[in-house]
Design a protein that fits this description.
With 317 residues, this protein is an alpha/beta fold. The protein has 13 helices and six strands.
């Protein structure tokens, strides 16, 4: 079979000026100028892709704050391990955090920071001799706090925060849990049994953990029911918190709460399926806006926090 090259002479062309284009000079970045403020830096970003989304996200958070709407922060333990507690606590003190949701590892690392100013053991080394996860203080303090809290009718977040606050720990100023307790900011903790080192401790009570976490799940759903015109941020949780969020949203809508116009954002170091679907896409299908940003927490969160503070012209604390 002989194939002849197609003849292009009869193709119909048109002027480039008639074409609709995605990239325009007016949307280009502006080169930095000496003396620029941080707000001017954000304004200098290209109005293209994430450079366009980032200022919009900052505007959404600022608007929710000004309207006194719910700003709900769900955070994986990576936020703590990246050294970002001071950033989160600063936002808490400024009123930019209405409530916090954590995974089990979140309370572990936060408690260890409050206790000794350090956390995150060398798992690769300690797993070789069975010492991984066997820190006595972490297991005993948290498990006793959870059991006592359940006896008092408290969820896990409240129980652990209360206990840590009562201990007058040397690094309390760096603890999200302790500072949330002092500021009366709700904290919920969402557990998958067997995933945390505290579940390996002799004092672990699975019944107490389950009950405490279920109380927090219901409290979290109450907060989600107030998200209309508010914000939900998922930072570094690939599975648990996006799943908890989606179920809570379904509960709230099933009970008749209007939650159609709100903003969600997922910030993580790589793209995961559940945050993209359960945070960014599915919840905002009826309205609102979902954002996704990929980047290292230790860079992205300080950038976001500073941009919000500059946008609102909030003075230093």
């Amino acid at each position: 079979m002989k194939i002849e090259p197609i003849n292009l002479n009869r193709l119909k062309t048109y002027s480039i000026k008639e074409r609709k284009n995605k990239v325009k000079v007016k949307d280009f970045a502006r080169a930095p100028r000496q003396g620029d403020s941080f707000s001017q830096f954000v304004d200098s970003l290209p109005a293209i892709l994430k450079g366009k989304d980032f200022p919009q996200l900052v505007d959404n958070i600022a608007e929710a704050f000004q309207k006194k709407k719910m700003i709900l922060w769900a955070m994986g333990d990576s936020v703590i391990k990246c050294g970002l507690n001071p950033i989160i606590i600063d936002l808490m003190k400024r009123g930019l955090v209405s409530a916090i949701a954590l995974q089990g590892a979140g309370i572990i690392h936060d408690a260890e920071i409050a206790l000794i100013g350090e956390t995150s053991e060398d798992v690769s080394f300690n797993i070789q001799n069975g010492k991984f996860g066997m820190a006595e203080e972490t297991g005993s303090i948290l498990n006793m706090a959870i059991k006592k809290g359940v006896d008092d009718g408290l969820g896990m977040g409240k129980a652990v925060s209360k206990k840590l606050n009562e201990m007058n720990l040397p690094y309390a100023e760096y603890s999200i849990l302790i500072q949330a307790y002092k500021l009366d900011i709700p904290v919920s903790v969402h557990i998958a049994i067997g995933t945390d080192i505290t579940h390996m401790h002799p004092l672990c009570d699975g019944g107490a953990i389950g009950k405490a976490s279920h109380i927090d799940f219901r409290c979290f759903a109450t907060l989600v029911a107030k998200l209309e015109e508010g914000m939900f941020l998922n930072i570094g949780s690939a599975v648990i918190l996006p799943e908890v969020f989606l179920k809570s949203l379904s509960i709230a809508r099933n009970l008749g709460y209007k939650i159609n116009k709100f903003t969600t954002v997922n910030l993580d170091m790589i793209t995961h399926y559940r945050p993209l679907e359960n945070v960014v896409k599915r919840p905002t299908a009826t309205g609102g806006k979902g954002y996704s940003f990929i980047g290292h927490h230790e860079i992205m969160l300080p950038l976001l926090a500073r941009a919000i503070i500059e946008k609102l012209k909030l003075t230093a604390l």
